Structure to design on (399 residues):
C-alpha cells in the first residue's frame, strides 16, 4: 500500500465520502448519499473500494427507519498506522499511531549534545528502524512518517532551515528519511504540528479557527484555519513569542527587547522567582530549592504554587497576565474561535489561565472577543508527536 494509499485517495469523491465517515461515523450508505448529494450507486461502489483498501469497515447495525436495518460504516482505525517523531531539542520521542490517534507505541531517547545534522538524522533513522523492527507484522500498514521539530521549517521541501536550540541549519529531513524508508515524510515546526494535532485529536476538535500556543522554554503558536495550517510567506507565521510587549524590557534570545517570551515563558518565570527571593521575599521555594537559587526552575515554581506558596502563585498569575496581553493582540489580529494553551508552563493550569482570561476580558475590543474560548491542551507530553502524525492524516483525508 504505502505510497499507493495517497495516490488512491486523490479522487475527490473518495475523500468526501471518507471524511463523512471519519467525522460522522457510524453512518449508513444512504445517509452519506443524502449528505453528499452523490448517487447511491456511486456511494456504494466507492464504499466497496474503501472497505477493500482497509480504510473503513462495516460496524453495528443502525436504527431502521422502517424496513431493513442499515449497515453502518466507520473508519477502520487499525487498518493503517502512522509514525510520529518529536525531534529534539532535548530528546527524540517516537510514536506509532492508528488512524484515530490511538498511540500503540511511545518511546523516547535523549540526544547527546551537541549534535551535528548528520548525527541527528542518524538517530532519527535508528529510532524509526527500531520501531519498524518491533512492528514487522504491521509494516505494510504504515503509511508515512511525520516529523515535528522546533525552529523554522521549509514544509514544501521538508528541510529544517534553522533549529536554534541545536545550533543547526538546513537539515534535509524529508529527503533523507524518504530515501531510507520509502515512505512519504512530512516535516513541520513543532508549534504548528501541535496546533494541527489539537484540531484532529485534542482540545481544538470541532472549531473552525484555532490558535494553539505552546508555552515552554519559549513561546510559539500554530494557526489552523478551516482545517489548514497557516504558514505565512516565509514559514514564520505564529512566532508570537517574539511579539514585543515591553520595548524597555529584557533582551530576548532573538536580539530584540521585551518579547512576550521574556515575560511569560518558563525561564522568565524562574528568573522572576530568583529575583524576588534575592531581595528577601519569603517563599516555600527557599526550602524546595535547598536554599540554592540556581536550582529554581519554572517547574519548581509550579510545584510551590500547588503547595499553596503565595509568591509562586503571584508569579504564575502575572505570567498569565503577560500571556493574556499577547493573546489579546492575537485576538485582535486573527479573531480565532478558540485558543489552546499547551507546553510545560500550561501545567500550571488554572493559576495561569485565570491571569490570561481576566486580561483578555479586560482588554479585548468587543463583548464576544472578551469571551474567546480559551482552553488547556489535552494531549500532554505526546502533543508534538501526535501533531506530527496529524500532518500525514490531514493529507490522507484532505479534500
Ligand atoms: Zn524575541
Amino acid at each position: 500500500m504505502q505510497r499507493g494509499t495517497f495516490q488512491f485517495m486523490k479522487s475527490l469523491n473518495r475523500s468526501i465520502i471518507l471524511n463523512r465517515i471519519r467525522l460522522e461515523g457510524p453512518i449508513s450508505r444512504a445517509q452519506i448519499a443524502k449528505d453528499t448529494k452523490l448517487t447511491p450507486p456511486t456511494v456504494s461502489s466507492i464504499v466497496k473500494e474503501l472497505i477493500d483498501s482497509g480504510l473503513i469497515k462495516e460496524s453495528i447495525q443502525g436504527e431502521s427507519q422502517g424496513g431493513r436495518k442499515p449497515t453502518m460504516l466507520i473508519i477502520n482505525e487499525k487498518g493503517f498506522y502512522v509514525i510520529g517523531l518529536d525531534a529534539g531539542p532535548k530528546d527524540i520521542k517516537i510514536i506509532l499511531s492508528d488512524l484515530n490517534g490511538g498511540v500503540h507505541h511511545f518511546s523516547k531517547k535523549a540526544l547527546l549534545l551537541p549534535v551535528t545534522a548528520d548525527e541527528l538524522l542518524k538517530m532519527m533513522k535508528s529510532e524509526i528502524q527500531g520501531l519498524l523492527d518491533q512492528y514487522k507484522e504491521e509494516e505494510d500498514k504504515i503509511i508515512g512518517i511525520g516529523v515535528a521539530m522546533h525552529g523554522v521549517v521549509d514544509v514544501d521541501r521538508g528541510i529544517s532551515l534553522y533549529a536554534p536550540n541545536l545550533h543547526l541549519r538546513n537539515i534535509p529531513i524529508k529527503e533523507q528519511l524518504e530515501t531510507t524508508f520509502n515512505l512519504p515524510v512530512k516535516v513541520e515546526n513543532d508549534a504548528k504540528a501541535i496546533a494541527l494535532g489539537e484540531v484532529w485529536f485534542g482540545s481544538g476538535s470541532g472549531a473552525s479557527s484555532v490558535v494553539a500556543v505552546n508555552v515552554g522554554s519559549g513561546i510559539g503558536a500554530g494557526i489552523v484555519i478551516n482545517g489548514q495550517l497557516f504558514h505565512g510567506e516565509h514559514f514564520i507565521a505564529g512566532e508570537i513569542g517574539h511579539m514585543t510587549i515591553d520595548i524597555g524590557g529584557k533582551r530576548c534570545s532573538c536580539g530584540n527587547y521585551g518579547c512576550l517570551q521574556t515575560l511569560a515563558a518558563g525561564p522568565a518565570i524562574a528568573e522572576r522567582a530568583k529575583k524576588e527571593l534575592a531581595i528577601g521575599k519569603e517563599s516555600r521555594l527557599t526550602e524546595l530549592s535547598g536554599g540554592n537559587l540556581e536550582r529554581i526552575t519554572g517547574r519548581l515554581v509550579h510545584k510551590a504554587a500547588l503547595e499553596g506558596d503565595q509568591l509562586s502563585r503571584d508569579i504564575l498569575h502575572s505570567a498569565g497576565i503577560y500571556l493574556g496581553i499577547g493573546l489579546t493582540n492575537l485576538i485582535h489580529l486573527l479573531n480565532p474561535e478558540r485558543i489552546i494553551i499547551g507546553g510545560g508552563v500550561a501545567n500550571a493550569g488554572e493559576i495561569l489561565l485565570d491571569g490570561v482570561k481576566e486580561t483578555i476580558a479586560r482588554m479585548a475590543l468587543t463583548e464576544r472577543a472578551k469571551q474567546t474560548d480559551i482552553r488547556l491542551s489535552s494531549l500532554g507530553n505526546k502533543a508534538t508527536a501526535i501533531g506530527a502524525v496529524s500532518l500525514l492524516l490531514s493529507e490522507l483525508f484532505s479534500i
Summary: Residues 242, 252, 254, 256, 259 surround zinc ion (CB under 6 Å).
